[in-house]
Amino acid sequence: MLCILDSKDPTGQQGDYYLLTYCKAKHLKKWHFALTVSATCIIIALVGVAINHFIVEKKDNSTTITSQVPTTISSAPPEPTITQTNPNELNVGDVKKVLKALKKAMFGPANWRDLGLSLGLIVTTLDTIGKTNGDANDYLEKTIQKWLKKEDQVKETTWQILKEAVKSTGDKAAAERIPLH
After folding, report:
1. Alpha helix positions (H), the chain
2. What CA–CA distance (Å, rounded) separates 135 from 5?
3. What are the residues whose beta carbons fall under 8 Å from the beta carbon of 30, sequence distance 6 or more?
4. Most exposed of 72, 135, 140, 170 (fewest Cβ within 10 Å)?
5. Terminus-to-terminus CA distance in the chain, angstroms?
6. How many C-beta neighbours within 10 Å does residue 169 have?
7. Is the whole-model pTM more than 0.70?
8. Contacts of 134 (CB under 8 A, 6+ apart)
9. CA separation for the pair 144, 111 (Å, rounded)
C-alpha cells in the first residue's frame, strides 16, 4: 500500500510534495493498525522469552534467586567445604599427614602420576599439575590435595584407598608400610 506523492499543489505552487487526501484517510489508518499489532506481538514475545528465562534459571539454581552482587570482595579462594560421611575418611586438612605417611612408607614421589590415576584423578588434571613449576614432591602434594578435595572421579578418601592406590603403582613394599590409622 503506497501513498502517492504529487508534485502539484492545489494552490499551484511547484516543487512541494504532499500526500493525497485519500492516502491519509484510508492507508495511514491501516498502517497504523498493522504497526500497532506488530509492536504488540513483539512485546508479547519478549515477555514470553523473559519469563521462560526466569523459570529456567530458577529451575537450574533450584533455590531462590538472589542478588548476584557480592557483599565483599576477596582475592583469596573460597575455603574448601569439608563434608565427611565416613568417619575414616580423610579431608583437605590431612594433606601433611598423608604426605608424612607416604614419606615414612618410602613411597617415591616420582610415581605421583600413577598414584593420581589410581586414586581417581583424570589425565587432564594430572597434566595440569605436571605443567606447574616444581619437582616431583610438589606434584605429589598437589595430587594428594586434589584427591582429598574429591576432584574428578574420586569417591572415597580413606587410608585403605591410599594403600591400594600405592600398591597399584607397583610399590607393594611402600603400600604395606602405610598404616590404616
Report:
1. 21-22, 28-61, 95-104, 112-119, 123-130, 136-148, 159-168, 172-177
2. 84
3. 1
4. 72
5. 89
6. 19
7. no
8. 142
9. 12
